[in-house]
């Protein structure tokens, strides 16, 4: 099974006030935790999907970059995923991780890959607190057709894709720190305490 890792790192972090992926936890940038969790599971290639304004801030070693073209309006994760998937030609599956999740673990990635190896689903998505977590998920290449169709119709919400494809959901307990959402510097300061 051929899996590429895609770290989505082109968001605006508008609620946070600065790009969250460059916040640090234990002397590492947030985005590096996503890269390492994929790397430690022998996923290759690992691609960071970002934009022209942010690329200069990333450490360049052992990852590839896919740059989104400049746009006046925010394109969103569905577009970023489609853009990355369509440029990675030799992968059957894509393991998508957000770039602002410092508590993601190697074990989590392994558990999700194990589910993909036995699945005929279009996507394998965790559920945490009764909510789908689509930016911690595996997507099969066959989703490209549906993604392109939605984007052509200017339907940019990732939830619209999830409603139209065959999902395998993986439940996680409500005390999992992996999915901790940090929306503001105050949230992060509070969490560190």
List keywords for this structure.
193 residues; alpha/beta; Spore Coat Polysaccharide Biosynthesis Protein SpsA, Chain A; single chain; 8-stranded mixed sheet; two-stranded antiparallel ribbon
Share of residues in helices = 25-40%
Number of helices: 6
The CATH C-level class name: Alpha Beta
CATH architecture: Alpha-Beta Complex
Strand count, sense and barrel status of the largest sheet are: 8 strands, mixed
Strand content: 15-25%
- Which consecutive residue ranges, at least 5 long each, have pLDDT under 50? none
| Morphology | globular
Terminus-to-terminus distance: 41 Å
Kindly state the mean pLDDT as a whole number?
Answer: 91
Structural class based on helices, strands and sheet pairing = alpha/beta
Q: Please name the fourth-level CATH homologous superfamily.
A: Spore Coat Polysaccharide Biosynthesis Protein SpsA, Chain A
Number of domains: 1
Compressed to H and E, one letter per element, the order equals EEEHEEHEHEEEHHEH
User: Over the alpha carbons, how many angstroms does the gyration radius reach?
Assistant: 16 Å
Named CATH topology: Spore Coat Polysaccharide Biosynthesis Protein SpsA, Chain A
How many individual β-strands? 10
Domain MobA-like NTP transferase: 5-159
Enzyme class: transferase
InterPro entries: MobA-like_NTP_Trfase, Molybde_CF_guanTrfase, Nucleotide-diphossugar_trans
Cofactor: Mg(2+)
